[in-house]
Design brief:
The chain is an all-alpha fold. It has 15 helices and no strands. It is found in: Cell membrane.
């Protein structure tokens, strides 16, 4: 593939090289690596705080002791290992999944406002869960996990199939329109099922808001394989997304198989969004705002955007989860609610920026 695909800043509207004009590629790479290291350290700090902070604050030394010397008779061990550790690990993997999925979605659709809703992932997962609850009587997160994953996958496949109809194939505009239409139809079905089943309505209220609480290691181990596979695939799509960012005609001229690229992106999105949504619920805004944060730091190269998003997204998700634990004692706000308060102003700012019409 041509070198112009690897460095698309000159060909993407609004793209920047991610460094000062005239700086050498080696110096820019050092700066980006240093920034990535800082972001990784920040993520580690937030993860430690997630183990410390809550209704009961635990000192760092006690956290380490609980992790290394687990004792069922020790209250700190029970809080850290049995409650906060699975919550933190699930926040890490779900954050990685949603951050990478949002980045791939925006690169695939060339839509700066793309998030898991654009391919019907949230609504597909929600419909599968509400049907599992209402029809099959499934109520536990580990029980309806695979229903949510299957619903997300089927909804994404339906959106892609509808948008692929016609001579032009799955263009960014057709993807967005098909996603909106399928989401509206699935949303109507969800409402219809909830109106006929009080049990599904009560269970869905907790799942739909998005939460890291109440999920144990069982949920984590179930989604970890698909999340890992999706993350590896997404991180390998950087060069291909750089080609799509130049336009389909230019990408084809550079020898890229656009149809294959879109199919790979779709598989990555289904694996990442389906797993994360099934595990923690349809958390909004994370996959929308994190790629823009990464893009402002590194420029238009999707290889770096993907890498930064994989670190920034879990850090933001865990930070919002920590904030939700302390703002309303003795209870807590679910992370989906806190993230909505954080993400909504960013979303409004993105809509008002006229130059972000396309990526």
């Amino acid at each position: 593939m041509s070198a112009s695909v690897d460095a698309p800043a000159a060909g993407i509207p609004g793209g920047q090289a991610g460094g000062r004009v005239g700086s050498s590629p080696r110096a820019r790479r050092r700066r980006l690596l240093a920034g990535f290291a800082v972001a990784a350290v920040l993520l580690a700090v937030v993860a430690v705080l997630s183990l410390m902070v809550g209704a009961r604050t635990i000192a760092p030394a006690d956290v380490v002791h609980a992790l290394l010397h687990y004792d069922r008779t020790d209250q700190d061990s029970l809080v850290v290992v049995d409650s906060r550790l699975p919550r933190t690990l699930l926040g890490l993997v779900a954050g990685v999944g949603l951050g990478l999925a949002g980045t791939v979605m925006q690169g695939l659709s060339r839509n700066p406002l793309a998030d898991p809703g654009i391919l019907g992932v949230n609504f597909g997962a929600s419909l599968a869960v509400v049907v599992a609850i209402a029809v099959l009587g499934v109520t536990s997160p580990s029980g309806y996990l695979w229903f949510a994953f299957a619903g997300a996958a089927l909804a994404s496949a339906l959106v892609y199939a509808v948008s692929s109809l016609g001579r032009e194939g799955a263009t960014p505009v057709k993807l967005a329109l098909a996603g909106a239409a399928v989401s509206a139809a699935l949303g109507s079905l969800i409402t219809a099922v909830e109106l006929t089943s009080r049990t599904s309505l009560d269970a869905m209220r907790f799942w739909q808001v998005g939460s890291l609480a109440g999920r144990g290691f069982g949920v984590l181990w179930q989604v970890l394989p698909t999340l890992t596979a999706g993350a590896i695939l997404a991180l390998g799509l950087g060069r291909l997304l750089n080609g799509l960012a130049l336009g389909d005609d230019v990408a084809r001229g550079l020898g890229q198989r656009v149809g294959v690229t879109r199919a790979l992106c779709g598989v990555a999105i289904v694996l990442l969004c389906g797993s994360a949504t099934a595990a923690v619920g349809p958390i909004a805004f994370l996959g929308l705002i994190v790629p823009h944060i990464a893009r402002r730091v590194v420029g238009a190269d999707y290889r770096w955007i993907l890498a930064y998003s994989a670190v920034a997204a879990p850090a933001l998700l865990l930070a919002c989860d920590i904030l939700g634990r302390v703002v309303a004692p003795p209870g807590e706000l679910q992370v989906g609610v806190v993230l909505a308060f954080v993400g909504a102003p960013v979303f409004i700012a993105l809509v008002r920026r006229r130059r972000l019409v396309s990526l």
